Amino acid sequence: MPSDWIPLVTWKLLLIPFTYGFVGWVTNWLALKMTFYPIQFWGLPPYLGWQGIIPRKAHKMASKSVDVITERLLNIREVFLKVDPKKAEKLFLPLLEPNIRYTMKEFADSLDPNLWELLPKLVKEEIYHKVKRESAITIRKVIQKLQMDIEALFDVKTLVLKKLSGDNVSLVVEMFQEVGAPEFTFIERSGFYFGFLLGCIQMVFMVFFPIPWTMPIQGVIVGYLTNYLALEMIFRPLLPKKYFGLFTYQGLFLKRQTEVSRLYSKLVSEKILTPKNILQELVFGKASVEIAELIRNEVIKHVDQISILAKPMLFATGKLDSFESAKERIANVMTSNAIENSMHLEKYLGEALDLEKMMGDRMSALPPKEYESILRSAFQEDEMLLILVGAALGAFVGWMQMVFL
């Protein structure tokens, strides 16, 4: 080794691998943070500032999640056929009983304030049980109607999009972070390992070719490669592949398909397609008018059937108009009461639908290419941006090294 090179082989050169290990770690860590944060745009919009890649494209990513859920993991008609109308009736009917007795009295009082008190107790109980039987029939009819026309009455795509975008954008970030936690940890740590290895190569290069201005260029290479290699090792190869005849490797995310499938399905069933959210969408969303009208019409029909013998007397006494008004009023009260109490079916709906298991099983069986897109969609469009961030930071550190050495 030439004597004029010897001074360069100092502790400063020995720091290079550690410096680039640190650079690799920092660039990968920063790339991850820039993927998820900030949730809202920080800076001077529209161009001077930054918003996390996932929050910025939350609606697009939510749309991809909707496609995966509705086209690959969930058949909404098949799901709702699991609901047993008789079991739902058994659970729901006791909730309506107090209201049935109350509305019966209200109905009688609206025709004649003394009518209810004049009726024998046996007659009152007979009317009550008949109304109760008819209410049970109504419950079954509503559920069967939902099962038959669920695609038209329940918009699962709108529900998922609503829960993953707008003010709920943080949920998209949370889901990606939980599903890909081990992969993101690998990206962060691998930056140090790859950086250290490339730093060793750079150290040797500087011993034999001590050209200071090359250090920023080498920094660019280190920053670029650490991010690129980390992303590649997560998603490639799709299937297990043997290398050098010594070891088999598969992309880390692909290797965890069964585990990720269970976790992803759990998150969707607990945070998005929850029984509560589904019931709210049915009761207050697209289907609400049709469901309310169905209940109302059934109540009116049952009132007519029960009162058929009394109609001639009502006509003769001039109270038929009062009867029609009272019938409408009672129908509206019963409909409102049924809708209000529908949320009590939340527990049974969760057990019956069992979305977590259905989605988990189907996601586990997805072909590798389709499965990969679930997490990679968070990176794919902006992978190059993340890699270039690493390269830029590497260039900066290389320049600092040049000054230092």
Question: Can you put this structure into words, describing what you see?
Answer:
The protein is mostly helical. 76% of the residues lie in helices and 3% in strands. It contains 22 helices and 4 strands. The chain has helices spanning 11-36, 53-56, 58-73, 76-80, 85-111, 115-118, 121-148, 150-153, 156-164, 169-179, 181-208, 214-235, 252-255, 257-271, 275-284, 288-306, 311-316, 320-341, 346-353, 355-364, 368-376, 383-404, and strands at residues 42-44, 48-50, 241-243, 247-249. A two-stranded antiparallel ribbon has the order 1-2. It has a two-stranded antiparallel sheet with strand order 3-4. The radius of gyration is 33 Å and the shape is elongated. The relative contact order is 0.17.
